[in-house]
Structure formats: C-alpha cells, structure tokens
Amino acid sequence: MRNDLVAALDIGGTKIAGALVDGGGRLLLRARRSTPAQEDAETVMAAVDAVLGELTGSLPWTRVTAVGIGSAGPVDASAGTVSPVNVPGWRDFPLVPRVARSVGGLPVTLVGDGVAMAAAEHWQGAARGCRNALCLVVSTGVGGGLVLDGRVHAGPTGNAGHIGHISVDLDGEPCPCGGRGCVERTASGPSIARRALANGWRPGPDGDTSAAAVAAAAHRGDPVAVASFERAAQALAAGIAATAALVEIETAVVGGGVSRAGEVLFAPLRRHLREYATLSFVRDTTVVPALTGTDAGLVGAAAAARLGGRGTAEAVVGGRPS
C-alpha cells in the first residue's frame, strides 16, 4: 500500500483535533478532544496523546510518512516549542519532541495556527492564486499568517503575521501576552462575549454565553450584541489596515469560529476597513471569508508536513504544496 498520508494536529485553546490527510487535502480519519486549557502541562499533553492514540491505532496509520502541527501561539518552530497565550500551562513546552516520541520518530513539522490557516487557504481556499494575502483565525484567540509573493511566509520561528497581538488601543486592556490593547483582546470570541455581558446582554434560557450566542442575538437585532461585534470588527479592521500598509496585501481571508457570525461581523469589518485603509496602495484591500472552514488548521498542518519542514521557511507554490 502506498505511503501517501500525513497526520495533522490542530491545537487551540478550545480543542485539540487530529486527522489523517491524503495528498489532495482530504481528511480520512478524525479524532478530537477538548483542550484542558487551564490545567498543567502534562494534562494538556495527555489530551494530545489521546488524539494521537486514535490516529496511530488505526489501520491507515501504516501509510503515514510525517506529522504536521498547527498550534496556537506563539510557537518556536526552530526549537520545537510552544507557548500558547490561552494555554498558560504550556510555556516553552517541547511539543515537537514529545509528539515525535508518540509517533515513533516520524518527522514532525510545527507552525503557528495562523500560518497553518494561511497554508490551507493558499492551497485550497480563498487565497488560492493570491500573491499577497493575510489569513486570520478569529476564534478563542486571534492568529494570522501571511502569503507574500506567492509563498507562505512564516518567519524564523513560525509566527509571522500574528495579527492578534498588534496593539490597536494604546490605553486598552492588558493582554495575557503582556501587551495592551491587542486585537485579540477585543476581537476574539471570549472578548466579544465578555463585552456583551458587561454591557447588559443576557443569554437565553439555555444560558449559552458564547460568542456564537451573541452572534445569534445580533442577527435578531439585539443592539448590545450588534455593538460587541461592531467593536470586534473595528479592531480587526485596524489590524488588517496596518498589515496592508506594511506588506501591501491584496486580500484578507477571515476564518475561525467567530467568522461563522457572517455579515454580523463582515459588514462592519468591511466598513471599518474602508475608514482605516485610505492610502492609495491599501485602499483596494478586500476582505473575504475563508473557505476551508473548521478544517483549516488540519489542512494547513498537513501542507506543512508535506513540505517536510520547509513549510516554516519556504512556500506553498502555485496554490499546492511543492
């Protein structure tokens, strides 16, 4: 049987997902655990091992040649460590060697979740064929990755494009990253929900206080819910405009769980972007929804694995892993 599969891990503050992925980006087998984000390092790693255990115990595992990881960041691809802002138990955690041990020494490639999303969207999604793009993950946190001159650009440590920790409010709230007024502190799902609750929004009978519940209320016209998404969109627009001014992107691709709010998010985002992106070389920057959906992290991690480590420094060329 051909050795034509790679294993992919998508690690975030809410979930740890895994899959076996073929050369066309199709997910053949899935596994998932909730992230015990507030627990100690070994408890979080046990959840990763549980996902890996489901994959390695499957019959198709014999066809796997490499493992790719897209993780909430910051990551250090050169050292193989991760320090996710929303997983405080992992600080300089040696994720790559730990995963390599669990998979029998197969090659393991690490990228940030935003870079993974950029790789996925450039391979199969809304950034396919784009020369210059910013791809954003708006979820429990806010991450990002860049496509520059037709290539996924991850930077030396795998964090380039991390828009979530651009400061857009000099007097804003402290961020767990150590900064203040970061995009993530305003635009992430938990931030949207927290702001809505603080300003008087109340959940329905089911008690759901998630950003998805706020989005549903906004679709029904609840003014507090609408205002919370408006503020998130403004922060995202400011970060996108700043990125466009630095590297002249053509488009911003927005994915992650919060993007499923649809026009409640995208309509004010486009409006605010017109207000911030006013210079001649950035005013035509477009915003589009991601196409790879909740599988973006897995598809992008698989793309990085197929690049054999070059995914953190080189390219997804011509819309396909080279």
TrEMBL record:
Keywords: Transferase. It is an enzyme of class 2 (transferase). Its EC number is 2.7.1.2. It holds the Pfam family ROK. One of its GO terms (molecular function) is glucokinase activity. The keyword Transferase applies. This is Putative ROK-family transcriptional regulator. It comes from Streptomyces clavuligerus.
